[in-house]
Design goal:
520 residues, mainly alpha, 0% strand, 23 helices
């Protein structure tokens, strides 16, 4: 029997079609995962937390704090100790936590037991922190052209289901959350296995950021500060009304998302991060100013301020997803810590805002006059932040300035001269036969040691900077430099920054290029 031989063109078309099908399947998986994450978030805040507050209000606060601690730990591990990332172990812990959460919270609500609810809620926060980060990491692996549609579709689906999530009883919401966690994990597991392994094998990002500062956003960047401040504002407007406005919000938070999706499909262009944040801020500010007069405007049937706040929150969740994808798309090494950091800022900001709102109202006596002044003051502070602090700041420019880290290319002279550890005065020389064989071939060619010394003299490097510069020119990481010179990471970072400024470079590869191109 003769095997059928397919034409080369047909094989290419089939291969391209299968690749497109695989990318489409990955997009669907990621959209389902993000939708599950958002739905569980909505069900928790709309049904489970109100049930917890009626039994023991501190359970919610402890659960939120524990989730922030877990996310902060993930950021620290990814940036300083990536070798401690064990995806299989973390996956196992998350799945066991989901099971424990389902059992403990179900029994806790049935028996009104604060202890069981606290234990179950802590397990819930642990599982949420890891699984939500996995969803964001999977999203960052998608092609840039697919991310907007995937993000908008996922957020729209979740907020379309928001009325159902809020209508669930606490026990039913716990079961729904557990199911969402299981679906999320099954969707993203094959997509994040390789990125997590690469992250575990990578060098600490704190050290990589020293040699390539433009490839990483510092933790204190204004983009992250803005996310935290916005989250505080959201927590404030949730906590301030208290007993003065218990009317439900209209289930229309999906409308802004639907409008954005329609505009994208019609124009083929996604609103940039600055425009999306402006929309979020406008809706939240309107909700703040409307809170004191909400009963007059809505007649107590539905809360107009809460409706605006929910709409702003839906746009903000879309913004978070897109920001993680944009940042990690330029430097995929940052996907895990960026996702964990943004979620930690969001969760902690909402918690801080709720505490500030409750504290202010308690101090002023929980009167309608106190609500007026507190809402007005909060709104004005947030407006001042948006118009003064963010006046000359652009999220788009900040993300656009991130450079993809280039693979280091060691100096050509170093390779040709046959050094074992490189050039610039570091490492053992090649064997004597190798030196003798190459000595005549490269007679008259400047050695890399000479170039390093000449560059150091030309740009006014100090002796210690010259030592650090020599190692950087070999392609050494900051961790290696720290060990070889017996200095601290901060000292290595300080010298590296000074060297970059003096040479006018922005990355380690540019520094190596200066050495290669220097003419004696």
């Amino acid at each position: 029997m003769v095997d059928e031989v397919r034409p080369a063109g047909e094989a290419g078309v089939s291969s391209a079609r299968s690749g497109e099908n695989a990318r489409m399947a990955a997009s669907v998986r990621v959209a389902a995962a993000i939708a599950c994450a958002l739905f569980s978030f909505l069900a928790t805040n709309g049904s489970i937390y109100p049930g917890l507050v009626s039994i023991d209000p501190w359970v919610r606060e402890w659960a939120t704090l524990f989730g922030v601690v877990v996310l902060a730990a993930l950021v620290v591990v990814a940036r300083y100790r990536p070798g401690c990332l064990h995806p299989r172990l973390f996956n196992g812990i998350a799945l066991v936590s989901v099971t424990g959460y389902l059992v403990l919270d179900s029994c806790g609500f049935a028996w009104a037991s604060p202890g069981l609810l606290l234990a179950g809620s802590l397990l819930d926060s642990l599982a949420e922190a890891w699984l939500f980060v996995l969803a964001y990491v999977a999203f960052a692996q998608l092609e840039a052209a697919r991310r907007p549609v995937v993000a908008m579709t996922a957020c729209l689906c979740a907020y379309l289901l928001q009325p159902w999530a809020s209508a669930l009883g606490p026990t039913a919401a716990v079961a729904a959350n557990a199911g969402c966690f299981a679906v999320l994990f099954l969707c993203v597991r094959p997509l994040v296995a390789r990125p997590l392994q690469e992250a575990a094998r990578s060098e600490p990002q704190a050290e990589m950021a020293v040699a390539n500062p433009q490839s990483f956003l510092p933790t204190g960047h204004l983009l992250f500060v803005t996310i935290f401040v916005f989250s505080i504002a959201q927590g404030l407007v949730i906590a301030l009304p208290g007993p003065f406005n218990d009317a439900p919000a209209l289930p229309v938070a999906f409308i802004p998302l639907a409008v954005i999706l329609v505009m994208y499909l019609a124009r083929g262009r996604m609103p940039n991060a600055d425009g999306l944040f402006a929309l979020c801020a406008l809706l939240i500010i309107a909700g703040m100013f409307l809170q004191p007069s909400d009963r007059v405007v809505s007649g107590g049937v539905a809360s107009a301020s809460n409706t605006l706040i929910d709409a702003g929150a839906s746009c903000f969740n879309l913004l978070l997803v897109l920001l993680v994808g944009s940042i990690a798309g330029r430097n995929r090494v940052t996907a895990l810590p960026t996702a964990a950091l943004m979620l930690a800022l969001y969760w902690s900001g909402v918690g801080v805002g709720a505490v500030l709102g409750n504290s202010a109202m308690t101090l002023l006596g929980w009167t309608e006059e106190a609500l007026v002044w507190t809402s007005f003051a909060s709104a004005m502070v947030f407006v001042a932040f948006c118009f003064i602090v963010l006046k000359n700041v652009s999220f788009v420019e900040a993300i656009g300035a991130i450079r993809s880290p280039e693979p280091l290319r060691p100096p050509a002279v170093m390779e040709v001269r046959g050094r074992r550890d490189g050039a610039c005065g570091e490492g053992a020389e090649a064997t004597r036969p190798g030196r003798e064989m190459l000595s005549g071939m490269f007679a008259g060619v400047a050695s890399t040691e000479e170039k390093c010394a000449a560059v150091g003299a030309e740009y006014g490097l100090t002796p210690r900077e010259g030592e650090v510069f020599a190692l950087l020119a070999q392609g050494r990481t900051v961790g290696v430099i720290r060990e070889k010179l017996v200095i601290s990471l901060n000292t290595a970072r300080f010298h590296t920054k000074n060297i970059y400024v003096k040479l006018g470079v922005h990355s380690q590869q540019e520094l190596i290029d200066v050495v290669e191109g220097f003419k004696l």
